[in-house]
Specification:
There is one protein chain. 30% of the residues lie in helices and 16% in strands. The protein has seven helices and eight strands; from the N terminus they run ββααβαββαβαβαβα. A hairpin with a 5-residue loop joins strand 1 and strand 2. The radius of gyration is 18 Å and the shape is globular. The N terminus is likely disordered.
Length: 269
């Protein structure tokens, strides 16, 4: 694949081998950014179009909007860094795509696409937020050993970790190994937000409402059971498990809200 990351902006590979995309706003963030017009620049203006953050958050109810604005004001003086981790096939890149509302990370049902760290940036005027799409674990023992070191090296720079779990997955050994042996010893436990992705595949998956893009009542019950199971399995209660379907666009706004609430007041150095 020539360019595993598609979208706006330009690709930059730094001296450490990290590939990142720089540019203006990459599409819509969880449906709260204005739609792209195919370019980061307006005609006759070399500056990227940056919408006012208050206009961006107008989609939320007033009380919630004020809380989000207050939280953003607390973190606006630095660039928060969010790492997206999880097992191969959980849909990490799809979650990144949903957050940016565009195909900015390569997605494949056949192979593990994210072989290297990919950085994506959302800009708020002079400020920005960075999301790092990190290679998935559980593909094979050799790669997992390499990724253990990668995860440990990246952890100190991350303000928040989205650990993505596939909705219909029943095997958690790789997730548990990395959580218990890599994240927790490095002090990353309090920064982890579990994301239950692909909930449209949770039984009875044929009852998924394809018109409204939401689960059926029976699916909702099983999704709640899966959330409780993950919380019990990992012994983690700092943040609630957030169920989403990145491909269906389900619950992405709730994920955005949870991310903003979970961001620390100060950057971790």
């Amino acid at each position: 694949m020539d360019d595993p990351v598609k979208g706006e902006g330009r690709m930059i590979t730094d001296v450490s081998g990290v590939t990142r995309r720089e540019g203006g706003i990459l599409g819509m963030w969880g449906n709260i950014f204005p739609e792209r017009n195919g370019s980061n620049e307006q005609k006759g203006d070399s500056k990227p179009h940056i919408p006012d953050i208050r206009d961006i958050l107008d989609i939320f109810p007033q009380p919630l909007r004020e809380k989000l604005l207050n939280k953003i004001s607390e973190v606006i003086d630095y660039e928060p860094v969010i790492g997206v981790m999880g097992k191969t096939g959980a849909g990490k890149s799809s979650v990144c795509n949903a957050l940016f509302k565009g195909e900015v990370c390569a997605v494949s049902d056949v192979e593990a696409c994210t072989r290297e760290v990919q950085e994506l940036r959302i800009r708020f005027g002079k400020h920005s937020l960075k999301i790092i799409d990190i290679p998935g674990v559980g593909e094979n023992a050799q790669r997992d050993k390499e990724y253990e070191d990668l995860y440990r090296n990246l952890l100190p720079s991350l303000d928040l970790i989205l650990w993505v779990i596939k909705g219909d997955d029943r095997a958690f050994s790789a997730d548990e190994h990395f959580y218990n042996n890599v994240l927790l010893p490095a002090g990353g436990g309090e920064r982890v937000l579990f994301v239950l992705n692909q909930v449209d595949k949770i039984e009875p998956f044929r009852e998924w409402d394809t018109h409204l893009h939401q689960p059926s009542p029976a699916q909702r019950i099983n999704i709640e059971k899966k959330e409780a199971y993950i919380t019990e399995r990992f012994g983690f209660t700092h943040y609630p498990v957030t169920p989403v379907s990145a491909d269906e666009g389900y619950n992405i706004l709730r994920l955005v809200e949870t991310i903003i609430r979970a961001l620390p007041d100060r950057a971790k150095k």
